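dude i think i finally got it to work??
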Amino acid sequence: MTVFGELNGSTTSSALWDVLPITARAQTWGDEIYFSIPVTADEEDARETVELGAIGYWPPGTALCLFFGPTPASRRGEIRPASPVNLLGMIERDATALKAARAGAEITVQRA
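look at this
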């Protein structure tokens, strides 16, 4: 499966861009895929809730997060990370396609 995303102009998204490509094993938490990346950043306009398709960076876990639905922390009608994330961009088209990904699957994030 291939999904595409667009990064915003934040400092954290620029740091991600600089270390691409990254290959990691997916971890899941509800309808979120996350994995550690070689980027260390503090909170940057961090969000407690995100939109469907958000690409985030979770500072406590130095992790890239792909949100395609509710997490165990979500309340009705929202998508809530474990703690605030830096918004890096958005997945293009249908982010719910990520529901097919399983924990432990190899994920590659690269420039397109």
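The beta strands are 5-7, 22-25, 27-28, 32-36, 54-58, 63-67, 86-91, 106-109.
im so relieved honestly
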